[in-house]
């Protein structure tokens, strides 16, 4: 009788991991799951586990975003037990705070995107007990799911949509556990699946791809410089195919003349664009004007000069020493970080309150030295606005109109307001794209407009300086302006830019005579900023420099 070691080894292997379980997962009694352990299967409809049949599994898919397309994952254990294999010393609760699933997306055999899923995705109970889960990738019913956002990051923010071009492809997904304690550890492959997919051709008209002519009466002199028209048409094709999304306008100024003016998503020249945090950079401009005119001494003035801070919560003498400059450079030392949900000073905690300034001044301080550590802190800009409003005769709103907007010929705009009906410099300023371009060109002109000085040249220089050069993972930040380096071929193009949720940008290049405005409404989308950067780097810069 011939003896096979395979069943024995499989049993031993399974028993080895079973004895390491930190919690007992749910019993696997579904026949479909038993037959497909360690597998990712693809479905074109929402089916409960108990109703899933073999015939529901797709063997080929046509990817259409208005249709259902998702996956079900069959594992032989729960996530927490996979994590326990990586870090046996941690408790179940500690494991799920430090680890989750790692997803790898391949197209035609090439790894396109790898993500260590945020530990906040899914519930603790699911991570401890579940051995199978379903997530939508495309959803006809707009199903809310961390899976859809994961797919969106792969598809739109990290080149998935560029890999899945028109035609036939192979899509593969691999899932592993990962944990990040002092270092990142990745576990064994726990599920994988692949499927042939077809990307259908989209029917476009010549009008959708054609370069949009600049209409008369723009208020700008029109540029006669040549551009690479094929690059612009290729950009239009991607916008028309919805491969770049929610773009509302693109304006390019070169040598102080209007070179490109285009509108999308039913917007036009008169549309007031909601550019969110782009408005923060206007706070910087107004602070510079106010200092030049003597309403403030300088940006090194401290909060203790403007507020009785002992009247606010969490007082420490350190609050008195917070400078306006540290608020302008997002380095004030307040415990406020909009990128961390648990941060006490997160802007989402501010908006529901009835006094945004009080909210900010109540925020605790960290032990970080003022002016040294960058942390995106919207609430701090609200305080800058309040200081300006209190120290400018007649208030900030009238002052902004008289000293900034009227000299630029900007007559139509809308502010967001605080609960006290003061203009909010946190963001939300709306105006049309050509007027946003005027603001950008003002900075490109080192503070002058039509021969008249509006902002001091030295203030522009301070605003366009990187105060965080020691941070290698961060391109830089000035006085409420982001530093960004765009790369085209072997060339680098440094820029300072206003940037807002949705992918909104006013970009001023430091070494070429160019200002670019992109407005968009991809609010809270993971791809918003990356697609704007691709538009600039892969299409606009090559086009206006007439490169391939």
Quaternary status: single chain
Main beta-sheet strand count, sense and barrel state: 6 strands, mixed
Q: Please mark out the parts with pLDDT under 50 across 5 or more consecutive residues, or reply none.
A: 1-19
> How many whole angstroms does the radius of gyration measure?
27 Å
Q: What percent strand? A: 15-25%
**Which outline best applies?**
globular
The helix tally amounts to 19
In angstroms, what separates the terminal alpha carbons?
71 Å
* SSE-based structural type: alpha+beta
Helix content: 25-40%
SS elements, strand count: 19
Give the averaged pLDDT, no decimals.
Answer: 95
Any overview of this molecule?
- The longest helix is centred in the last third of the chain and has 17 residues.
- Strands 2, 4, 5, 7, 8 and 9 form a 6-stranded mixed sheet that branches.
- With 548 residues, the protein is of the alpha+beta class.
- α9 packs antiparallel against α19.
- It is built from 19 helices and 19 strands.
- The N and C termini lie far apart (71 Å).
- A hairpin with a 2-residue loop joins β4 and β5.
- 30% of the residues lie in helices and 21% in strands.
